[in-house]
Amino acid sequence: MNAGTDIAPRPGDALLVTDVQNDFVIGTLAVPGAEAVVAPLNRAMAAFYARGLPVVTIRDWHPPGHCSFAKAGGPWPEHCVQGSHGAEFVAGLRVPGGALLVSKGGDPHAEAYSGFKGTALADALRARNVRRLFIGGLATDYCILNTVHDAIDAGFAAVVLADGIRAVDVHPGDGARAVDEMRRAGAGFALTDDVLSASVAKPR
After folding, report:
1. What is the DSSP code (8-state) at residue 8?
2. pLDDT tens string 24-65
3. Among 23, 104, 141, 150, which one carries the catalytic annotation?
């Protein structure tokens, strides 16, 4: 799919905003530059809501002792524990009323980077006649990458909001490699304001 054409949001589209939570922005697992995704994602959420298109917010929602935590032998510091301040969406993220909330990572024994893993997200989107997803949030090289892969595998088209994502970059270049991988999988990339200013192409 070429993100440079036909990117105007329309019926059949939905917006996914993933993991813009305190621990990923200002907390124990803060992603470099994460604060910068809030403004473009707010614009996107407001525009999709105004057009009557579905907005989905996805969050990590881990039980204490989750397998991804270092104390349990995982790779990450404790983060986004259910009910904690770190698990809340960051202050300033303006989630519209009626947005669908999806919680992932609730199984203490399973990692869940993707918003589709262990959730009913795909069914919820199909029930709303969604065919294409615009995706932004944190982090490029983990939850965005895996969510995009699973979206495409589930039959949805995917457009990543290029200014609405940031990478952890545990290894330098991880974010860029993730972008390349998503492109190879068929995802398009576009800037938020280009998406929101695009006009729906009229049939010839």
Report:
1. S
2. 999 999 999 999 999 999 999 999 999 999 999 999 999 999
3. 104
Selected catalytic residue, list 13, 19, 150, 163? 19
Angle at 128 (CA atoms; ends 122, 132), nearest 5 degrees: 65
Q: Report whether 161 contacts 62 (CB < 8 A).
A: no
User: What is the token pair recorded at 74?
Assistant: 């995982």
In 99-196 the beta strands, taken as DSSP E runs, fall at: 100-104, 132-138, 157-166, 188-190
| Residue 163 half-sphere exposure toward CB, CA atoms < 13 A | 15
What is the mean pLDDT of the segment spanning 148-152?
98
Selection from 134, 166, 184, 129 nearest residue 6 by Cα: 134
80 is catalytic: no
Q: Which amino acid is at 185?
A: A
> Does 141 participate in catalysis according to the annotation?
no
Q: Which of 13, 143, 150, 163 is catalytic?
A: 143
> Class of 13-195 per CATH?
alpha beta
Tell me, what amino acid is at 60?
D
150 carries an active-site annotation: no
Query: Any idea which residue has 């992932």 for tokens?
Result: 104
Domain ranges of the chain: 13-195
